[in-house]
Automatic annotation (TrEMBL):
This is Tripartite-type tricarboxylate transporter receptor subunit TctC. The keyword Cytoplasm does not apply. Belongs to the UPF0065 (bug) family. Keywords: Receptor, Signal. Residues 1-23 form the signal peptide. It comes from the Bacteria. Transmembrane segments: none annotated. SUPFAM superfamilies: Periplasmic binding protein-like II (SSF53850). InterPro entries: BUG (IPR005064), Bug_dom1 (IPR042100). Coiled coil: none annotated. It comes from Rhizobium subbaraonis.
Amino acid sequence: MKINRRIFGLMAAAMMTALPAIAAAEYPERNITLVVPFPPGGGNDAMARIIGDAMTRVIGATVVVENKAGAGGVVGTQSVQHAKPDGYTLLLGHSGTMGINPHVYPAAAYHPTKDFTPVGLISEIPLALVVNKDLPVQDVAGLIALAKEKPGALSYASSGVGTGSHMAAELFAHNAGIEIAHIPYRGSGPAMTDLLGGRIDLLFGVIPSSHAQIAAGKARALAVTGAERSATMSEVPTMQEAGVEGYEAALIYGLLAPAGTPEDVVAKVNGALNTVLADPAVQEKLAVDGSVPRPGTPEYHGKALDADLEKWGALIRDAKIEIH
């Protein structure tokens, strides 16, 4: 039987077009790898394991967390950038790796929405402006006045150059028009220890751990960095309420996939993510690190990533921040 070549070609093209849809309908057929671009044991790792375990129960496949540390998160991030875009390799991305690193690490030659497919926001983590209990200020206005009276005399700690705590403090100094000295530490624990010991004056810390010190009377919180007050310390004003106009420095976290991942696959992962974020048990676990769930669409995630990249980029250029 002779087959019309034109008809055969059309049939073949139709079959090829249908393949991605068929693949998406069957997704997932095997384990999904969730890459954390930092070592085990930190806050990023903890968040990934909470989300991975919960999504395993929803999406129909095991989500395996894999830690790929190096270069401030660049190594693991780039491994996902170059992975096959089939939905089986995902990335836990946050403000540090996606909004800050592209501006301070020459090796971070990637763009969060051009070289990746945004899947969905997980949460945002606001910080608290915490001061040593003996610092003679009672509010943000008083702190700004003291800093202007003694330019460069006040010091702030961060958990490292280019980290969220560093950027939050730099944004505060920029918006308030003050000069404060940066003392970088290897992690938030040592930074808080020196704040309590009076060796530094202030820091921007994660709210739950900061709250423990504040409740014990060892430090004072002057403001929180999010757009809304924290449920953990509702008596503390936001930075904008305290008079620092335009200030907001919550760190955003989300899932990303390699660029070109099929839309149907992204939709399935997004749906599973939003389902687990609605679970009170998951919300309770995330709250340990001060995370506020922010479920939404991939499009909403993409807009948040672009805004984050632009905001931190402008600050980094203005403050001439570099990582050596």
